UniProtKB/TrEMBL annotation:
Keyword Cytoplasm: no
UniProt GO molecular function: metal ion binding; sugar-phosphatase activity
Protein name (database record): 2-deoxyglucose-6-phosphatase
InterPro entries: HAD-like_sf, HAD-like_SPP, HAD-SF_hydro_IA, HAD_sf, PGP-like_dom2
Lineage, opening ranks: Bacteria, Pseudomonadati, Pseudomonadota, Gammaproteobacteria, Enterobacterales
UniProt keyword terms in alphabetical order: Metal-binding
Pfam families from the UniProt entry: Hydrolase
Length: 215
């Protein structure tokens, strides 16, 4: 059993299934620049677009332009964006002042995808433009916890990607990996799906029982 005072959620792959859209765009990018698509997709998982583009193209105007084009295309593609199983029910049961979204997506894209998936928006959102360093830096999770008014150590992070799991761990929070990335799962509690969580309020926060978990 875990205990938390607040919850910090990644978006893509954790609350929202955008896999097909995201991977299609990275395949398009890879073909354009003659890169190995599988290598690009593996690196990009959980990271900001610009960080991934710079990793493969190097810093410079070309990388900025390519990242802007990728972001613009993703803003227009909402078909196939759906909620992860259990996400809607879980979020609806949490008080607005006890959860935040921490995503590598821009604020506009995050709002579009959450709406497309039929999920509520939290009062606190820390998006790509709100941090100096993206995941695996813990900056986003530390900032979200602070805005909510809690220490990161008293929060639980929900993540699906190795970069995000490392960010959550580095913040000092406990991490629950949802369909965890094999490279990061050993450092987190693992939950195959959000429907396998039992979250019960208590006098100081919430008790969380993982019906299938590994330490």
């Amino acid at each position: 059993m875990l205990h938390a005072e607040a919850f910090l959620f990644d978006m893509d792959g954790t609350l929202v299934d955008s896999t097909e859209v995201v991977e299609n765009e990275w395949r398009r990018f890879s073909a354009r620049f003659d890169l190995d698509a599988e290598e690009v997709i593996a690196f990009a998982h959980g990271r900001q677009t610009l960080d991934t583009v710079i990793h493969f193209l190097g810093a410079g105007e070309e990388a900025v332009t390519a990242a802007d084009e990728l972001d613009a295309r993703e803003l227009m593609i909402l078909d196939g964006i759906v909620a992860i199983a259990g996400a809607a029910d879980l979020l609806q049961r949490l008080p607005q002042d006890r959860w935040a979204l921490v995503t590598s997506a821009s604020r506009e894209l995050a709002i579009n995808r959450m709406h497309a998936a039929g999920l509520p928006l939290p009062a606190v959102m820390v998006c790509a433009e709100d941090v100096a360093e993206g995941k695996p830096s813990p900056e986003g999770y530390l900032k979200a916890a602070s805005i909510l008014g809690y220490r990161a150590q008293d929060c639980i992070v929900f993540e699906d990607a190795a970069a995000g799991i490392r960010a959550g761990n580095a913040s000092g929070a406990r991490v629950i990996a949802v369909v965890p990335d094999a490279n990061g799962a050993q450092e987190a509690f693992a939950c195959a799906t959000l429907t396998m969580l039992n979250i019960v309020p208590d006098t100081s926060g919430f008790r969380i029982t993982l019906l299938m978990a590994e330490e």
